[in-house]
Write a structure and sequence with these properties.
Layout: E1 2-3, H1 8-16, H2 24-42, E2 60-65, E3 70-79, E4 86-93, E5 102-107, E6 117-121, E7 127-129, E8 133-135, E9 138-144, H3 147-155, E10 158-164, E11 170-176, H4 180-187
Parallel strand pairs: 1-3
Antiparallel strand pairs: 2-3, 3-4, 4-5, 5-9, 6-7, 6-10, 8-9, 10-11
Helix pairs in contact: 1-2
C-alpha cells in the first residue's frame, strides 16, 4: 500500500470521498466544487471541466502460494496520505486454468450503489459495471478483462474510475497505467 503526496485541492476531494453514510455526501459535493475552482484559478487557460490527473504510482506484482499453486496479481492501491485509508484498489490477476485476466476494484463506502461504476481508458468509450458487494472494508466490482479492454490498458495512459456519491455527484479517480503492460506480462 502506498501513501500519495497529493495537491491540497485533490487531497481534500479524496479524503472526503471515503466518508461513510449519508453524512459525507454534502461535504463531498462541496469539496469537488472547491477542487474545480482551485484548479481553474491556478491555470492561465480557460477552465473546462476539472479532472484530477493520475499520479505515477507503480503497479506492484505480488505472488503467494495458497494451495501449493503460485497465484500472482498486479495491483495499484491509492490511499489517503493523512489517514492511510484505501480510496481505490485495482487488482488484476489471471485465474488458474484461464488465459484471460480478471480485474477487481475495491471502492470506498458512501457511494450511490445503484449507479455502479464507469471505467474509461484515455477518454475512450466508457464501460459501465455494477457494484457486486460491500463489506466493512469497502465495495467491490469484479470483471473479466476482454481482449479489447486489456489491449487498451496495456497501451493506455490512465484508467478513469467514476462513481457517484450519495447526492449523485460524480467522483472521478484516475489510475496511472504506466507500467501495467510489464506487470501484466509477469502474471502470464
Amino acid at each position: 500500500m502506498l501513501a500519495l503526496p497529493l495537491r491540497p485541492a485533490i487531497a481534500r476531494l479524496l479524503m472526503i470521498s471515503c466518508c461513510v453514510g449519508a453524512l459525507c455526501a454534502p461535504a463531498m459535493a462541496q469539496a469537488q466544487k472547491k477542487a474545480g475552482a482551485a484548479t481553474a484559478a491556478a491555470s492561465d487557460k480557460p477552465a473546462k471541466a476539472s479532472e484530477p490527473q493520475a499520479l505515477p504510482i507503480p503497479w506492484l506484482v505480488s505472488c503467494a502460494s495458497v494451495t501449493g499453486t503460485m497465484a500472482c496479481e498486479a495491483e495499484q492501491t491509492l490511499t489517503i496520505k493523512k489517514t492511510g485509508q484505501i480510496l481505490l484498489k485495482v487488482s488484476v490477476r489471471v485465474p488458474e486454468k484461464s488465459e484471460k485476466g480478471a480485474m477487481m476494484l475495491q471502492l470506498p463506502h458512501g457511494m450511490f450503489l445503484p449507479d455502479g461504476v464507469t471505467l474509461a481508458i484515455d477518454g475512450k468509450a466508457p464501460k459501465k459495471e455494477p457494484i457486486q458487494t460491500c463489506d466493512p472494508k469497502g465495495c467491490y466490482v469484479g470483471l473479466p478483462l476482454d481482449a479489447a479492454f486489456l489491449k487498451d490498458m496495456e497501451s493506455g495512459k490512465a484508467l478513469s474510475v467514476t462513481f457517484k456519491d450519495l447526492k449523485k455527484n460524480d467522483i472521478k479517480i484516475p489510475v496511472s497505467l504506466s507500467g501495467f503492460k510489464e506487470a501484466y506480462a509477469k502474471l502470464m
